[in-house]
Amino acid sequence: MAQLSEMLSAVNQHWNINDLKRVYPHLSRKPRSRHQAECVKQISLHFAEACERLAEACEEVGHGNVLNVHKVQEALQRFLVSTLQLANVLGCGDRDLEFLLKEWVKKRAVLPDVR
After folding, report:
1. Each residue of 89-98: pLDDT tens digit?
2. 113 Ramachandran zone, left/alpha/beta (phi>0; psi -120 to 50)
3. Range picked from 9-23, 35-49, 64-78, 96-110 for highest mean pLDDT
4. Which residues lie below 8 Å from residue 103, measured CB to CB, with a gap of 6+?
5. Terminal CA-to-CA distance of the chain, rounded, Å?
6. What phi and psi, each to the nearest 5 degrees, are found at residue 76?
């Protein structure tokens, strides 16, 4: 679990607006509206905050217990849902953001196998 926490902390440090724009290309087109720029900024900040909360959850749950791994998975699920809600408030497309989040989870927040 400590390893997952360290990985998520590292993700928090390296995740930035350029990563967002790479997977969410319509926000990069020029001229970008002020609203689109604010969307990118707010979502990026939300990712950073969610990563911190998730890293804290990893520290709390301890080592090797399947129930504890499920708590981490639940925290990740809450992160995905709250980010999609934020996107709706800001007027971003669900489909694009959902793709972005799935890619982020696949590449950077791989959970331990509990089989």
Report:
1. 666 655 655 5
2. beta
3. 35-49
4. 23
5. 16
6. -65, -40
* Banded pLDDT at 112 (limits 50, 70, 90): very low
**20-53 pLDDT, tens per residue?**
556 555 545 554 567 666 766 676 677 667 666 7
Long-range contacts of the stretch 96-103 (C-beta < 8 A, 24+): 96/24, 96/26, 97/24, 97/43, 99/23, 100/20, 100/23, 100/24, 103/23
The continuous run of DSSP H or E covering 105 comes out as helix 94-108
Return d(Cα 85, Cα 65) in angstroms, integer.
31
